[in-house]
């Protein structure tokens, strides 16, 4: 029995209206909307981190429901490495324009020009260096709350984080000094220079996200669905062949049917083999996977929990 057949056996009513309007998704959506409204009420200068990826698009859909189309009360912020997939950045710009939302883009390349980011070599990934550019943007605009689409199921270090994650005046996260969140009561007090990172979909899973995308008919960048792409096999991953990630000596370039489970810097993000052509197909496919999306597709996350935790302490998303 193949993976799709097994998933269909487990969920025989996969495309029924009852499944697509289930109370589980309603509860998650209500929680996210409540948190988005709490941010608007509690902070003076919040912003919503918007990459054009699926999680930030789900977050944006919840913000539309919370405040109304064209009435989102905070700007969208994107930290661009300069190595993002063009399909994603083009979609980001289109979606912001459709909503009439203010989109602020700050680039790692600008930080490099200022000398605040220095690469060890030209081919080094810029992914981790986003922390510097992000902290510079926080200082520039005096943001006191940054709303992000991170989820606890993505990675162990993220699972430790509160929904309202306090950051000190240096943008650092202290995992042993977090504020309790009993009965959905959030302590939003800040000292000068401090800020919060807020994660309204923290309790969602990858499956929840895709079910919500299917139910709400949320448009996504095309690379989230099956397409043909040149790849090479490297360390158990399918690495996309591009000017930034060329094939190495001895590697055989293949054309495969792939999709991206998560999108980020081209130099760190890998696709998975897939024929999933729409959100319903992805839901079925997601039921059969046993590796998190970041664990299966991010070259820079194949290190350790401690490494990611250190990056978050340094101000990473």
Automatic annotation (TrEMBL):
Superkingdom in the source lineage: Bacteria
A GO molecular function held by the record: sulfate adenylyltransferase (ATP) activity
- EC number(s) for this protein? 2.7.7.4
Which residue positions does the secretion signal occupy? none
Q: Does the keyword Hydrolase apply?
A: no
- Which family does the similarity line name? Belongs to the PAPS reductase family. CysD subfamily.
In Swiss-Prot or TrEMBL terms, this protein is called Sulfate adenylyltransferase subunit 2
Where do the Phosphoadenosine phosphosulphate reductase domain residues begin and end?
46-270
The answer to whether UniProt assigns keyword Nucleotidyltransferase to this entry is yes
* Pfam families per record: PAPS_reduct (PF01507)
* Keyword annotations: ATP-binding, Nucleotide-binding, Nucleotidyltransferase, Transferase
Which InterPro entries does the UniProt entry name for this protein? PAPS_reduct_dom, Rossmann-like_a/b/a_fold, SO4_adenylTrfase_ssu, Sulfate_adenylyltrnsfr_sub2
Q: Whose protein is this, by species?
A: Variovorax ginsengisoli
């Amino acid at each position: 029995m193949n993976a799709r057949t097994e998933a269909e056996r487990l969920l025989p009513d996969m495309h029924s209206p009852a499944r697509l309007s289930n109370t589980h998704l309603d509860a998650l959506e209500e929680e996210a909307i409540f948190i988005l409204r709490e941010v608007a009420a509690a902070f003076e200068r919040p912003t919503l981190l918007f990459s054009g990826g699926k999680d930030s698009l789900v977050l944006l859909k919840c913000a539309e429901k919370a405040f109304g189309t064209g009435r989102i009360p905070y700007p969208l912020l994107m930290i661009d490495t300069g190595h993002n997939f063009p399909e994603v950045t083009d979609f980001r710009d289109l979606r912001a324009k459709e909503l009439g939302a203010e989109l602020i883009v700050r680039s790692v390349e600008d930080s490099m020009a200022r000398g605040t980011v220095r690469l060890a070599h030209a081919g080094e990934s810029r992914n981790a260096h986003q922390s510097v550019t992000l902290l510079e943007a926080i200082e520039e605009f005096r943001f006191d709350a940054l709303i992000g689409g991170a989820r606890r199921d993505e990675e162990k270090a993220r699972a430790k984080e509160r929904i309202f994650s306090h950051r000190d005046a240096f943008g650092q996260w202290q995992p042993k000094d977090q504020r309790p969140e009993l009965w959905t009561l959030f302590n939003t007090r800040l000292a000068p220079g401090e800020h919060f990172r807020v994660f309204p979909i923290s309790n969602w899973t990858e499956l929840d996200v895709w079910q919500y995308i299917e139910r709400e008919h949320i448009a996504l960048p095309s690379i989230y669905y099956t397409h043909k792409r040149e790849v090479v096999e490297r360390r158990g991953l399918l690495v996309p062949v591009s000017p930034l990630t060329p094939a190495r000596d001895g590697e055989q370039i293949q054309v495969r049917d792939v999709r991206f489970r998560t999108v980020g810097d081209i130099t760190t993000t890998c696709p998975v083999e897939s024929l999933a052509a729409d959100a319903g197909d992805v839901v079925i496919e997601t039921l059969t996977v046993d590796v998190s999306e970041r664990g299966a597709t991010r070259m820079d996350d194949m290190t350790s929990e401690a490494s990611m935790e250190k990056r978050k302490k340094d101000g990473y998303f």
